Each structure stands twice: as C-alpha cells, then as structure tokens.
Amino acid sequence: MTRILIADDHHVVRTGLRAVLEAQPGLEVVGEVGNGEEAVEAAVRLKPDLVILDYAMPVHNGVEATREIRKQLPRTEVLIFTLHDSQEVIEDVLSVGARGYLLKSDANDHLIAAVRALARHEAYISGRVSAELLDTLLDRRRQGKQDPLTPRERRVVQLIAEGRSNRDVCGQLGVSLKTVETHRAAAMRKLGLHNTADLVRYAIKNRIVEV
Amino acid sequence: MTRILIADDHHVVRTGLRAVLEAQPGLEVVGEVGNGEEAVEAAVRLKPDLVILDYAMPVHNGVEATREIRKQLPRTEVLIFTLHDSQEVIEDVLSVGARGYLLKSDANDHLIAAVRALARHEAYISGRVSAELLDTLLDRRRQGKQDPLTPRERRVVQLIAEGRSNRDVCGQLGVSLKTVETHRAAAMRKLGLHNTADLVRYAIKNRIVEV
DNA sequence: CGAATTTTCAGGGTTTCGCCCGATGGTCAG
DNA sequence: CTGACCATCGGGCGAAACCCTGAAAATTCG
C-alpha cells in the first residue's frame, strides 16, 4: 500500500487528485493540506511514502517544502505538480530532492504512472525534459553556470516581486530586516539591477513569479 | 435538476469539480470538455442550464466561449472559474454575458453557492469585487470602457515600469519632479496599488511595457 | 577536516518613494 | 457659463529603498 499526502492550495485540485488516486488499488491518500508549511508538518506526522506538492503554494512554496521534507524524511518521495513547463523549475526542484515532476496538463494520462514510479523510487519527469536528460541536467547544475542567485536570494526576490516590502519579507522568512536587505542588494548587484522595477521584470522574465 | 457542463483544460480539476457537484442533490454533470471550442460545441448540443468555464483555456479562452454560448443559448448561465483575482478579468467576462465569477481558491467554500445562485439566474461573484459594485462596474464599462489611466499617467507608469526613477521620468518628459509624483500617485490610487512592484506587474499585465 | 560558499546580522549614510495637504490653468461638455 | 476632468506644480514628512563597509555563524563540498 502506497500512502500519499496531497498538498495544493486549491481544494478542487485536491479533490480531483484524491478521486483519481483512490480509484487505484494499492494507493491511499492519508492527508490533504493547502500550503507548504502544512505539508512539511503533515509529512513529518504522517510519514507518507509519497508527497504530491503543488509548485506554487502560499506560505512555503514547493521548493522549500521539498527541501525540508527530503531532509527530515529521506525515504519519502516528492512529486512536484505544476502548471508551467519550465526547465528552470525542473532543475530547481530536482536539485532539492524531488524525483518526480508532473505537469497539471499531463495529470490525466500520467498521474498514476508517476505515482507508481515514485513508489518504486524511480524518477518520473513529464514535460519537455525526458528522464534520459536528467543526469546531464544535474551535472550541468553541479558544475556551475546556472542562474546566479542563491536559493535564499531567489526567495527574497520572489517575495519582493510579489509586492512585499523588505519589512514584510523579513517577517515572512523569520529573519532580520538587515538580512533581507543584504540578500536583496546581493541579488541586484549580481544581476546589475538598480531598482525595484528592474528586479520585478527580472523575476517575471525568469519565472520566479507569475505576472 | 440543474444540468451542468464543465470546461477546464486540466483533467484533475474536472474530476474535482465533478466529485463536488455530484455529491449535491439536484445537480447533474452532463459533460466535460477540455477547451473553449469544445465547450461551445458541447453546450449547443447538450443545452445545459449552466456551463462552468475555466478562464484560461487553449483554442478558445473563457471570454470567447462565453460570448458564443450566451449568444446561442441565452438561457444557459456561465460561471467563470479562474486562478487569478483581477478586476479587469471580472469586467471582461461580465461584459460578454457571464453572470458568475469564482476563484479557484474559493471553490471549496463557494462553488455550490455559486452554482445554486446561477441556477436561479442570479449573479455570483467571489474575490475582491462584491456583487454590490457590479452595476457600477458594468455602467462604467458601458459608458467609457477604457482603462482607468489618463494618457499622461499611463506614460509615467510605462517609464517607471521600464526601470526609471521619478527623477529620470521628469527629465524625460520635461516636467517637474512633483508632476511625475502626482501622476504616479494618481495611477496607484486609481488602481489600488501601493508600491513599485505592484505597479510594474500591472504594467506588464496590461501590456503597457514588455517584460 | 578544511576551504568555500551561504546565510545571518549590524552601523551609518543618501536617496527615493508614498502620501497627505494645497494650488493654478487649460479643455471640453452640458 | 459652470462644473468636470486633466495636467501642471509645490511643501512637508515618515517610511522605504538603496549603497557602503564589515563580520560571525552555518552549510556545503572536496
């Protein structure tokens, strides 16, 4: 029996996932949550075999939740469930320990296959990137050359681009105002940007936030 | 018995909607389609009482599908089901004949209420806009229809979103700094925005600037 | 382990933003 | 003519953004 935790901020999506999964023998949905923070908490408590995580969630996003879950529960697999087909997103989530990546538009055909693969601890990638390229991607990421922002900087940029002030962000992330300023300044220096407007355009261009 | 047609490009969402709706007495899902063109075709064929349309669909989007369905089937109500809470989207879809607007994040609490209201041919709006403002919105659209910014304000917003500071803009336009600040403030007040990041996202969303 | 990177935080400064208040002309419709 | 918008400008003020320097934990990785 494969025990599954579902994390998605839209109730209707959770209902749909649950309906599809529970129609399958050997699969059991043990919990449903609506954001990344709850996902981590529920995962630790329920110790599921598999967590299905929406990439774009409030409070904690999919990447942060993945990192935390994989850290605390190495035997629990993570399947990222997302709207957008982006190579950067794939590299992002794979690098923090997810082994599954499923587009919402592919859910119909590939959800069960993805879940079965993850249950066997095999990678499953839908979208533009095939599983064959997985190692290449990860190799390239290890060597360097990827996007210049550290995860923390990227997270700060995301929140800024969503319209939060530095003060909001420091509350959200639980760090001091000075730390947020440092990350923001580091990101802008690396990217050669000098104001909020440029930073927001960068974030949109690189799909760190939606428009 | 209220007969319902579901149109959403994500199978999992359709499944979730169907599960929620069919748990209710008096509601029947008579069809599921995955894009706007199929929605029009299926609506004409099935003549449902209500069509639930995803706003963002391939082939035909929600607005086009709504226009066509309302034209061919005046007694069929349309409920727009969308991810984003945007006043412009609301005005858009209401102006082509939809009488329901439901955020996906509100689906859990309000889906049934929305469907029941539409079945009685009453408007139902979730999100930032209350039903009380509905007439005002539609009135304003009938009269003027265009975006709320004056040409000068729009020009200032464009330059800001391109990354210029107020000081840069005043040099560019040959007016005083105070004038630029006034236009910027007026634009933000009209749009209900409170910082640069929100202004830039607005400008991109409304194609005032490119990303 | 040890080096490199990341993350955290601070002081102290200038500039810009965001938001009040007010005002003067110009244009255009009723 | 008389409001209505619109574009132009100003004073003032607190908050936020921006920029520099420095530095100590924590993490990662060879």
TrEMBL record, chains A, B:
Any Gene Ontology biological process: regulation of DNA-templated transcription
Domain HTH luxR-type: 142-207
Coiled-coil region(s): none
Keyword vocabulary terms for this entry: DNA-binding, Phosphoprotein, Transcription, Transcription regulation
Cross-referenced InterPro entries: CheY-like_superfamily (IPR011006), NreC/VraR/RcsB-like_REC (IPR058245), Sig_transdc_resp-reg_C-effctor (IPR016032), Sig_transdc_resp-reg_receiver (IPR001789), Tscrpt_reg_LuxR_C (IPR000792), WalR-like (IPR039420)
A GO MF term: DNA binding
Gene3D superfamilies per record: 3.40.50.2300
Domain Response regulatory: 3-119
The UniProt record lists the keyword Transport: no
Modification sites for 4-aspartylphosphate: D54
Keyword Protease: no
Official protein name in the record: DNA-binding response regulator
Organism: Paracoccus salipaludis
